[in-house]
Write a structure and sequence with these properties.
Helix content is 40%, strand content 19%. It is of the alpha/beta class and 434 residues long. The protein has two domains: 7-298, Mur-like, catalytic domain (UDP-N-acetylmuramoyl-L-alanine:D-glutamate ligase), CATH 3.40.1190.10; 306-433, Alpha-Beta Complex (Protein-Tyrosine Phosphatase, Chain A), CATH 3.90.190.
Length: 434
């Protein structure tokens, strides 16, 4: 059986599986794991689902565990800098050689699965199986943090055998698949709750929280609600991120500082603190308060209100749904109310971009709409037509964003905000950072 000889061949083959789309269901994953010797049982895993905030919560949690001397694997999506970062160890993406080896291990199994009644494995299923095989057999770590892809209940990652689960925020996204009410969406996310395994949530809407609590009760899983058990004081935006005092049932954390900008990062950082406290309570880790301060302050997460240039200041933020856009606008009001905000925006066809554009217009001096090379990307003209802002422009070429930025370089009052699809953010980041 012919295997791949280069990393690029291997990754091109993985991407070719995109043609099989998104196929909710766990039969193919369970088949994979059985063939691989059930690697999920060898891991100390934390499983994180939610509409927004998953990646940031994982980044904060990993950073704190690293500060305390633990090795941490992460499985996240989509990627911003490089495909390899989907599987990372202590924040560092695994190597091309490791990916090549993993794909060559999985390829014969994929070919075999294709011939069964379960049908063809999708791109995400193959990548998820690679992550399980990697952390169980190639590079064991103290903890693995798994980010759910779509929803939770039927997501490929939901074959994990976790010691703890977390649900970040609940909002409207992927409604064609997950449902069009907060209760339906919450039920899909709550599908990650496991029998007897404690779970922590930052969901704040009463109707969503009630669904999560009901599922937890049914599964005899202790449910800790961030907003019901913790309180915040001294909240303020600072130049490098956010500052706030957190009171948990166990401790007080005066003047925590985040390394990530965004009012919502106060919630994500606090959820990470609760995750850490619960791991400590279970005897899984030993931690000092200074590790929590250090980890929260030094956490990094590319493409989340990330500053990538100074003249003019350019920020990238992957606000790719309505809830993300609301958080972004809160952040602009908190940090940049005295600035002229010039926006570059692109979105996928299946997102509620009309509503997102309406929200963006409330903070924008001007908006430049673009498209980018991705099958589901909306055209720049279609986005442009949705806008009622007077100072607007559009171009199909994402390269025009660089020219848009350059024209603002002599305006001391200007900042440029590049936002929308994470795939778009990744494209522009690569162009800016080279």
């Amino acid at each position: 059986m012919a295997l791949f000889t280069t990393y690029h061949e291997a990754i091109d083959w993985i991407h070719s599986r995109l043609t099989f789309g998104v196929k909710p269901g766990l039969e193919r994953m369970k088949w994979f794991l059985s063939k691989l010797g059930n690697p999920e049982r060898k891991l100390k895993a934390v499983h994180v689902a939610g509409t927004n905030g998953k990646g940031s919560t994982i980044a904060f949690t990993r950073s704190v565990l690293n500060a305390a001397g633990y090795s941490v694997g992460t499985f996240t999506s989509p990627f911003i800098l490089t495909f390899n970062e989907r599987i990372s160890v202590n924040g560092e993406p695994i190597s091309d050689e490791e990916w090549l080896s993993l794909v060559n291990q999985l390829k014969p199994l994929v070919d075999e699965l294709d011939e069964t009644e379960h049908g063809q494995a999708t791109e995400f299923e193959i990548i998820t199986a690679c992550a399980f095989a990697y952390f169980a057999n190639v590079h064991p770590v103290d903890f693995v943090l798994f980010e759910a892809g779509l929803g939770g209940r039927l997501d490929s990652t939901n074959v994990v055998d976790p010691i703890l689960t977390a649900i970040t925020s609940i909002g409207y996204d992927h409604m064609a698949i997950l449902g069009d009410t907060l209760e339906q969406i919450a039920a899909e996310k709550a599908g990650i709750i496991k029998e007897g395994i404690p779970m922590i949530t930052a969901a704040h809407q009463q109707e969503a929280l009630a669904v999560i609590q009901d599922v937890a009760k049914e599964k005899k899983a202790k449910c800790i609600s961030l907003h019901d058990t913790c309180s915040f004081e001294d909240e303020q935006a600072i130049e490098t991120g956010e500052q706030f005092t957190l009171h948990t049932p166990r401790r007080q954390y005066p003047l925590l500082e985040t390394g990530l900008i965004g009012t919502h990062q106060r919630q994500n950082a606090s959820l990470a603190v609760l995750l850490i406290e619960w791991l400590e309570q279970q005897g899984a880790i030993e931690i000092k308060k200074e590790h929590i301060y250090e980890g929260i302050r030094h956490a990094v997460w590319a493409g989340r209100f990330e500053k990538v240039s100074d003249h003019p200041p350019v920020y990238l933020d992957g606000a790719h749904n309505e809830e993300g856009m609301i958080r972004l606008i809160e952040t602009v009001h908190a940090h940049f109310s005295h600035k002229q905000v010039h926006v570059c925006f692109s979105a996928l066809k299946d997102k509620p971009y009309k509503q997102m554009i309406q929200k963006l217009e409330t903070i924008s001096t001007s908006i430049h709409f673009v498209s980018f090379d991705f099958p589901r990307a909306e055209s720049a003209e279609a986005l442009y037509e949705c806008s009622h802002l007077e100072a607007k422009s559009y171009a199909s070429d994402p390269g025009t964003v660089l020219e848009f930025i350059r024209k603002k370089s002599n305006d001391p009052a200007a900042i440029v905000l590049v936002t929308g699809s994470l795939y778009f953010i990744s494209d522009i980041r690569n162009r800016i950072m080279g």
